Amino acid sequence: MFMQFAQILDHDLTHTPVNKGFVGESILDCQPCDAMETVHPECFPIPVPEGDPYFPRVNISTGRPTCIPVTRSMPGQLTLGYREQLNQVTAYVDASFVYGSDVCEMGALRTSSGGQMNVTQVSGRGRPLLPEIRTHPECKSRSKVCFRGGPSSPPSPLAHTLATLEWLRPCVPALLTLRPHRWESQLILSSILYDVVCSLSQK
């Protein structure tokens, strides 16, 4: 799980947006070698060199040259010069891969009572799972259902999803037992988030 923890920590610190197609579409298909002209100017396909030990130089299905698809990230500078990238999440350890990085995202990932997060309850299968999403353009599952969590877009690798779950399941009932007086939902969530961030920072 070392690699998975490193990945979710990276997702907690950085999330660089890339150029996409029209509204509701997924990331650009920059597979064709002429994608910069035929698909989008921000496509940057890399030609496969002669004698590459892994990638074939020519696609045997189409007979066309093979290129490695690359989509350039969105530029963040306001003037001409070297391209600077954007970071659309908070650049510090705050468990944003679970709770979100802005008010709108957090509102979609949590409930309105008890400081609880939205989860998927699976009857007869134990603990809850990440919330489901059925409308994401990058969800490629056969059922058209993917899991949602923080700024990471689905689909996520299974091990990454499992690692995220470990941070999604802080025990709210235990917190309320320790503090029996009535707390508002936001105060409960803030206290849980504080504990989760402290635990994450110590790993």
List keywords for this structure.
203 residues, mainly alpha, 2 domains, two-stranded antiparallel ribbon, elongated, peroxidase, Haem_peroxidase_sf_animal, oxidoreductase, peroxidase activity, heme binding
Could you explain how this protein is built, in words?
This protein has helices at 2-13, 35-38, 96-99, 103-109, 158-168, 172-178, 185-201, and strands at residues 46-47, 67-68, 132-133, 146-147. It is mostly helical. It folds into two domains: 2-15 and 90-201, no CATH class; 17-86, no CATH class. The strands form two sheets. Strands 1-2 form a two-stranded antiparallel ribbon. A two-stranded antiparallel sheet has the order 3-4. Helix 1 packs across helix 5. It is elongated and about 65 Å long. The two termini are 12 Å apart.
Unreliable stretches: none
* Strand count: 4
Give the topology string: H per helix, E per strand.
Answer: HHEEHHEEHHH
List the strand order in the largest sheet.
1-2
* Alpha carbon gap, first and last residue: 12 Å
Shape: elongated
The structural domain count equals: 2
How large is the count of helical segments?
7
Tell me, rounded to a whole number, the average pLDDT.
76
Q: Describe the largest sheet.
A: 2 strands, antiparallel
What structural class do helix, strand and pairing data support?
mainly alpha
Radius of gyration: 21 Å
Strand content: under 5%
Q: What level of helicity do the residues show?
A: 25-40%
